[in-house]
Amino acid sequence: MREKTLYILADDLYRMGNSSSSRLANVRRSDINTREIGETDFIVADNNGVSVFTKEGLDECPLTGWVWELKAGTILPAGLTIVKRGSKGHHMIVPAENMPLTKYISLLESVAMFCEKQYMKRA
Question: Which positions fall inside the Tse2 ADP-ribosyltransferase toxin domain (predicted)?
């Protein structure tokens, strides 16, 4: 049996969404790699996933829209992990192992329940 690791967010993290949702489970196909096995799409665990930002990273990124917050101390469910990516303060919530894409989206939806709408970020 595989050991499962739970990740606890050390910092508040932010996601750009819309007025009604953090869109955390909105996985863009261009941001991930998938493989079809049988009739099922699997997401490849290659450190690609959905973007989130630290406060500093959010302030520096050019994105605008509704800001949603994931509080420090939030526990990511087994199957998800967080990695630092690219620019300062940019992170991604990624699959810890290859899994069906539908499972990854379901795990993200379970995290999205903890997102709280904060404010409208403008250019």
Answer: 55-118
